[in-house]
Amino acid sequence: MKNKINYILLFFVYSLVFFIVSRASINGLIYPFAFSMLFSLAWANQKVWLLVPSYCLGVILNNYSFESIISTLVTIFILIFPYYIHVIMKKPMKKWEIFFYAALSQIAYLIFNILSNNNPIYYILTILLGLLFIFVCISIFEPLIVRGVNYRLSIQELLCGAILLMIISDGLSNCNVYGFSVLKLLVAFSLLSISYSSNVLYTILFSMIMGVGTLFDANNSVYVAPFIIWALSIIIFRMRNKIFPAVAIIVSEMLIVFYFNLYYTSSIITYIPTIIGALIFCLLPTKFYDKFSVLFDCNNDRSAMKNIVNRNRELLYRRLNNLAEVFYEMNYVFRRLIKQNMNEEEIKDMLYEEIKNTVCNGCPEQKHCHRTFSDDTKRIFKELITISSERGKITLLDIPSYLSSRCGKANYLISEINTLTKQYKSYSQLVGNVDTSKLLISDQLSGISRIMKSLAKEVDSTISFDSSREAKLIDELSINNIICSDAVVYEQDARTMMTCIIVRDEDVNKLKLQQIVSKICGNKMVIYEVFPSTKAGMMNVNLKTAPMFDCLFGLSTYTKTGNNISGDCHSIERLDGDKFMFAICDGMGNGDKASHKSDTAISLVENFYKAGFDNDIILSSVNKLLNLESDDIFSTIDICTIDLKSGIADFVKMGSASSFIRSQDECKILESGALPIGVLQDVTPLTKKVVLKDKDFIILCSDGVCDTFGNDEEMKDFILTIKNKNPQEFADEIVKKALSNNNGYAVDDMTCLVVKIF
User: Fold this and answer.
1) Are 753 and 673 part of one and the same domain?
2) How far apart are CA 473 and CA 521, in angstroms?
3) Which of 137, 440, 699, 754 could share a disulfide with 727, CB 3.0–4.6 Å?
4) Which residues constitute the domain of residue 185?
5) Which residues contact 187 (CB under 8 A, 6 or more apart)?
6) Between residues 173 and 373, the one the model is more confident about
7) CA gap 326, 330 in Å, rounded
């Protein structure tokens, strides 16, 4: 029921529009606007079955002659027939076709004019200007129907909208009823509403557009000056109280009639349209104008929004700093909880006292052993403790003969020393693991503190929004048929410009999108994020300044002959800030255990890097975590992080094979260092910073590849012989050569990762 009412209302609105534009003319001789409006609305996906009867009613009401009726029927037939042919064939109508059908629809009008012996220049101009008006209407209808009235119009669309308003003004100037001007009523109400809802510029522009529109009909400028005077009087008394501008426009109309005498004729009816327009303006509620303001104020500078963004960044900076301080204090507390292990002598003294009190207590020889021969006894006990700690136990053969000959509790002594040393070793390991865990937590807290400090630093600067570029960007995209409802352009830092635009789904993958954004922003921009907008059918597209470098990579692997599972793992991850991480982890040995160990190590490294931790904290934490596992299986780590903005590569190596950097004319060797991860609790990895150049190759290999060559120099010489520029084929050649060095037999798992910088 609701839809039926809407369609009925729409029918009358369309009929009125067609009636007005059918009365619009150029100098009273050329009438090109009615058929143009019909085909434009059909192209803009308005329902043809509703447009056709509306067009017939509006045009025939204006002119119900035989020629007009026949011309109208031919026009609608030329629209309906090809339209439904396209619908049946499921083939969309192209834009040039709508122009062709529109021109063809005027064949009856053309024939009638030829038979009437009218000047042919008029009907030729009618068809040509009609086709031009179709372009104007499509340019304004298409974006408004697709985007609605809540979004910014481009300069071209605004100009087309102004021309459409002029044609409406032209038609309305011929719609007087017994001297009552419908045009004056509409303009009076519209000027008051625009002034109340928007700014001075829109008020002046609208008055000029509507005034100039009346010139088209018969070169009649009678309304140009009055409309401008109305606008000026409204602006002078423009305020939130609606009474003052309403009174001002009525008074100015009286001055126009009695003082300036601008109308050709005047009577009491001359004032009525202005008075009615002013009354309607005053009677409508304020809520109406709040909605009306969307039409005009959607293109403002959004200063309030931008100030809120920067204010929120300032608050975020303070909170992140405060949180960073909290985590730093927690790190300090955990470090103080770590117990310091006793040195070797202190341990022996403690165990000696425990054994003396346990074994020797109540022995008849106690005073003799621990007073007369106290130094010798203490030395022998400590030596026995040392042997038990190193070998795991002592036997009767380890006790000196002069002690065993006088000690009646030798077996008890042996049992107690073995028990105490074993218990202490277990306790010491437990305390060590607890301390390691505390140190690990402390490192993580310190790392989180650093990350928060870094994030605080990022949001410490005020964002500089570029409103002029935003406006140009929306206009340029619209000209290229990429509908952009909103755009934000700002500088993230000195080297990075960020752009966020909202476009239609079908526009996201258009090549012109990146080209236009790059042109407006003044540097190459690339899409880094696309996600749905809150509005249906629209997508958020985020772009940023393209980094100086990019990279390609290739990976080649080969499992040890006879094994199904490789002990090598690799990771290739894009990190925040245009950084890439490449890593190879080689679990000592091969098979399931080595694979599990290397998987664990590489997964930890990968996630720590993605979280933003520093190199030293990452490797220290991973090493401590793996050290808690007492499986005696260790892993080598070979990491390369590349900053594509600066072209700087950071290498971190722990027990891994050498890496290589192949330039166009040389090859550098980056030798390994440090123990594999998980061997000792505290490690210092080898780190190296290298500035990369265009067309450099980075080669990371596991020892299964490098060990097949005699030495690093031999592998370097082979790398220099490779002419292939494709990183995948480059990696394949290295692994193929490594296999051939062992006659096609893989004595260890092989992994080769090649990265090309360009």
Assistant:
1) yes
2) 9
3) 754
4) 173-296
5) 169, 206, 207, 210, 223, 227, 230, 277
6) 173
7) 6
CA distance 569 to 581: 14
Q: Tell me if 312 is assigned to some domain.
A: no
Same domain? For 330 and 250 the reply is no
555 and 489 together in one domain = no
Average pLDDT over residues 215-226: 77
Q: Compute CA distances 265 → 176, 223, 262, 268, 270, whole Å.
A: 13, 13, 9, 11, 9
Contact between residue 558 and residue 739 where contact means Cβ atoms under 8 Å apart? yes
Question: Residue 421's pLDDT is what?
Answer: 73
**For residue range 258-309, what is the model confidence (pLDDT) as tens digits?**
777 777 666 778 788 888 988 999 888 877 776 566 555 444 445 545 555 6
| C-alpha separations of 135 from 91, 109, 182 in Å | 22, 21, 27
Whether 315 is in a domain gets the answer no
**Do 624 and 744 sit in the same domain of this protein?**
yes
Query: 136 and 31 in one domain?
Result: yes
Q: Name the token pair of 593.
A: 């255990």
Angle, helices 120-147/107-115, rounded to nearest 10 degrees: 160
pTM above threshold 0.70: no
Which residue carries 């982890």 as its tokens? 585
Tokens of 681: 């609790």
In a domain, 307, yes or no: no
In a domain, 444, yes or no: yes
Model confidence pLDDT, tens digit, residues 528-581: 888 888 777 788 888 888 888 888 888 888 888 877 777 778 888 887 767 888
Look-up of token digits 């006292």: 353
